[in-house]
Amino acid sequence: MIALPTRAGKPDSTLAKAIDLAREVVLEVAEPGELGEHLGVHAEGERLVTHHFACVRAGYPGWYWSVTITRAKRGKELTVNEVVLLPGDEAIVAPPWVPYKERIQPGDLSPGDLLPVEDEDARLVPTYLVGDDPLDTPLDGDAKAQVRRVAEDLGLGRVRTLSREGLDMAAERWHDGTGGPEAPLAKSAPDHCFSCGFLVRLNGSLSTRFGVCANGNANDDGRVVTLDHGCGAHSEVKLARKQQPLPMPEHVLDTLTDDEV
C-alpha cells in the first residue's frame, strides 16, 4: 500500500474525471506494462489536480506515477503540467548524499592516495602568524608563502599545527574509541595504563590524559590510550596460583635394554 500526499480542498470535477488523459500522458514516457491501476486524484490548488497511478516497473517497488493537469477558468481545454515518477513511503531510494570527506574513514587511504585539508580548517592554525591578527582575515597566496619561508628560516618544520579545537576533537575521539576507558578490554582489565611500565606519555596538554602503548604483546601496541584505559597485558599483572601453568613432571630414565625386552 502506497501512502500518497493529501491536499486540502475538493478537486476540480472536470480535471478529476480526466483519468484517461492522465493515463495517456504516462504512457508517453513509460511502457504499457509499467503502468498500474489509478490510485486517486488530489487537489493541488484551484483548477489544479494531480492523478496518481501505481508503478509496476521492475526494480521500482513502492513508486508511483504522478500527473498534474490544469485548466483555465471556465475553460474546457486541459493542460498537462508535468508527469513524474515519485517514491512512496516504502520505496527503495538511494541513501542521502554524503560528501567524500565525510564518508572517508580511518584506514581507507591506499598508497598514493591524497587527502588535502582546507586552508581554513579549524583544526589547524599557522605555526608563525603574520600581521597583528591574521586569523581575522584569511591569508592570500603571498602571505602563505611568507609563512612557509619564515617557518623554514626559524626551523619550525611545520607551517601549521593543531589548534585548541583540533586538540579537543582528537582527545574526544581517542577517549570514545577503542583505547578509551569504556572499551570492553578496559572494563575487564586488572589495572589502568597510568601505572603500566609500557606507557609512553604524550607531550603538551594531552600528556595528562593520554599516552602510547609500547607493549608489543598488547592489543593496543603503538596506539594512543587514555590513562584510565587498561588491558590484561599490564606490566604489573600477576597470575594467581590456580592460573599458573602446571609444572612439568620429572624426566623418567628408561633403564631397559634390548636384551630385557
Automatic annotation (TrEMBL):
What name appears for this protein in its UniProt entry?
A: DUF3027 domain-containing protein
Task: State the InterPro entries in the record.
Answer: DUF3027
